[in-house]
Write a structure and sequence with these properties.
The complex is a heterodimer of chains A (309) and B (270). Chain A has 309 residues and is mainly alpha-helical. Chain A has helices spanning 2-25, 28-48, 66-72, 87-118, 122-137, 140-151, 156-163, 177-201, 205-213, 218-229, 231-246, 250-255, 263-271, 277-307, and strands at residues 51-53, 59-63, 73-75, 82-84. Chain A has a domain at 86-274: MetI-like (MetI-like fold, Orthogonal Bundle), CATH 1.10.3720. In chain A, the strands form 2 sheets. A two-stranded antiparallel ribbon of chain A has the order 1-2. The radius of gyration of chain A is 26 Å and the shape is globular. Chain B is an all-alpha fold and 270 residues long. The longest helix of chain B is centred in the N-terminal third of the chain and has 33 residues, at 62-94. The chains are: A mainly alpha (309), B mainly alpha (270). Chain B: It is found in: Cell inner membrane; Cell membrane. Chain B: Residues 68-264 form the ABC transmembrane type-1 domain.
Chain lengths: 309, 270
């Protein structure tokens, strides 16, 4: 009897182990697809960045560090010496600045919005979330186009101001840094609101009441209770805005008119008109390095938060 | 929890105004674009009257047909493949005891979300150029389907995994107690409960593929124009309100699929 039981248990344990192993294997198709068509290409651009550019695009299989040297230096056509050219560096710094300003303004607008959403009744909350979710998933190209229509010389704002007699010549807004900044804010605002909302929704508002009972003012409650408790959401939101804003491609392409480049357009240019694939790969990897630094700080801060409870 | 007497404590002054401004800022440009798609005039900015003639022009345009056809072939294929992969992966990564490679597997699945799109785009382009050069392999439109499948997987994965994690396991245990085999329990209990998550995930996968511009633009070969690429080609010519009509169609497709995904996901909460 006992032996039969233990045998049955043993059999069951074995079957369970086998099924657990089978279940594990279910993740293989996804891992293979992303591995081959997502991870492997990243390794290929790493290799490409150390090759020589072929004259009409593509690469020549000769080892070279030209791509990385070209990032900072340009060969003098007369005496072959390397001269420091900060052009690419300036584009990287500009993009960084754009991304930081975007993140800060999105946070300043997104936090109050997310907090307001989180303090509604559950039914109202659903509507607000849907309202923010729709632009989040809407076509970025089309949304950027919508901004372009509004800020063009013959766009709505200029027509309106001229019609009202405020100005008599249209203000040039399109193809300026202002246009790019506006476009980035518009594109990424939902990316800030949604993660902030997700974290604020879970906030224990009894703590707010407790603080209130202990004579904290509203402002004190906000700065000393709500914001510290929602810090993981704030960091997640900032990252979700910062990373795509840094590598933005569509926004500067359309609203900057190809004159005001950001990193994304610079990279794409090397694969198009620039015909210098290794340089494009090197530029992409330098961007990737910046993203990894941001992710590293994210992991460090959030895991720190969990440890503190 | 939501005690009406305490609402004023939770409220922060000015937050309502900012929330309303944010929503207005998000919607006004889209609405203006949509309104101008009904303009009968031939200038993008000059209003002449209400009519659907630009929708007619767009729908009769052969280039638009080709683009729509390509878009649907690519996004439907990418949605099916990525949803299957994501569903299997979600089961394989929630219904198991933690194994050593689990965090790494999780990272791989979510990788496409963390890499900036332009990097994915040039990397995929380099990859296909390499296998075309080395093996003479070119999958044609399959290149785009494969590229899209990669970044659709994490979007399909998220709602499916969320649903699996929320699922009440007692039903499965009950089925097992009633002598259901694991496969039986899965097919009769787990899978039906999982269907809303799978549909929600598929809807999201479809939108991200349908709307993708950056990766498609870099990877697409000649003749592989999708709707976003078609819009991009239009921008560079003298513009007509046809572009507003096509843009509005794209927006409406997104809104439809987001709402469906959202409503399905909501139903579970009840």
């Amino acid at each position: 009897m006992t032996m039969a039981l233990s045998q049955a248990a043993l059999f069951e344990a074995k079957a369970e182990k086998a099924s657990a192993r089978r279940n594990r294997l279910l993740s293989l198709p996804a891992l293979i697809v992303i591995g081959i068509f997502g991870v492997l290409p990243l390794l290929i651009i790493l290799v490409y960045s150390f090759l020589q550019a072929a004259p009409y695009g593509g690469v020549q299989w000769k080892f070279s560090t030209d791509a990385y040297l070209n990032f900072l230096f340009q060969q003098d056509i007369f005496d072959d010496t390397l001269q420091f050219t900060p052009d690419f560096l300036i584009i990287y710094l500009r993009s960084f600045l754009f991304a930081v300003v975007t993140t800060v303004i999105c946070l300043l607008l997104g936090f109050p919005t997310a907090y307001f959403m989180a303090t509604r009744t559950p039914a109202q909350r659903n509507w607000w979330v849907l309202l923010i979710t729709i632009p989040f998933w809407s076509n970025l190209l089309v949304r950027t186009l919508a901004i372009m229509f509004i800020i063009r010389d013959e766009g709505l704002i200029n027509n309106l101001l001229i019609g009202l007699g405020v100005i008599d010549k249209p203000i040039t807004m399109l193809y300026t840094n202002f246009a790019i900044q506006l476009g980035l804010l518009y594109s990424f605002l939902p990316f800030m609101i949604l993660p902030l909302y997700a974290s604020l929704e879970k906030l224990d508002f009894r703590l707010v009441e407790a603080a209130n009972d202990l004579y904290a003012t509203r402002r004190q409650v906000l700065w000393r209770v709500i914001i510290p408790l929602s810090l993981p959401g704030i960091i997640a939101g900032c990252l979700l805005v910062f990373i795509p804003a840094l590598g933005a491609y569509v926004t500067p392409l359309i609203l900057g008119g190809g004159i005001h480049l950001m990193i994304g357009d610079l990279i794409a240019q090397q694969f198009g008109s620039g015909r210098n694939w290794p340089l494009g790969c090197a530029q992409a990897l330098i961007l990737m390095a910046a993203v990894l630094v941001a992710l590293y700080f994210y992991v460090r801060t959030t895991s720190g938060k969990i440890q503190h409870g | 929890m939501a005690d009406p007497r305490n609402v004023d404590i939770k409220d922060q002054p000015g937050f309502r105004t900012i929330a309303i401004i944010c929503v207005a800022v998000l919607y006004v440009p889209i609405l203006i674009l949509m309104i101008f798609s009904f303009n009968t005039g031939s200038l993008v900015t000059h209003w002449e009257g209400v009519g659907l003639n630009w929708y007619g022009t767009a729908l009769l345009n052969e280039e638009f047909h080709n683009a729509a056809e390509n878009t649907l072939i690519i996004s439907v294929s990418a949605t099916i493949v990525s949803t299957i992969c994501a569903t299997l992966a979600a089961i394989g990564m929630t219904r198991v005891k933690p194994w050593r490679g689990l965090p790494a597997a999780f990272m791989v699945i979510n990788l496409p979300l963390m890499v900036p799109e332009i990097i994915t785009a040039v990397a995929t382009l380099s990859f296909f150029a390499l296998i075309a050069g080395a093996f003479g392999l070119n999958f044609g439109i399959g290149n785009l389907i494969l590229a899209h499948t990669v970044f659709c997987i994490p979007f399909a994965y998220m709602p499916i995994r969320a649903r699996l994690e929320d699922m009440d396991l007692t039903l499965e245990y009950a089925a097992a107690d009633l002598y259901a085999t694991p496969w039986h329990a899965f097919r009769r209990i787990t899978l039906p409960l999982l269907v809303p998550g799978i549909m929600s995930g598929a809807a999201l996968a479809f939108i991200v593929s349908f709307d993708d511009f950056t990766i498609t633009q870099l990877v697409a070969g000649p003749g592989q124009t999708t709707l976003p690429l078609y819009i991009w080609n239009q921008i560079r010519r003298p513009m007509t309100p046809e572009i507003n009509a096509i843009s509005t169609i794209l927006l409406l497709v997104s809104i439809l699929f987001v709402s469906v995904s959202f409503l399905i996901a909501r139903r579970r909460a009840k």
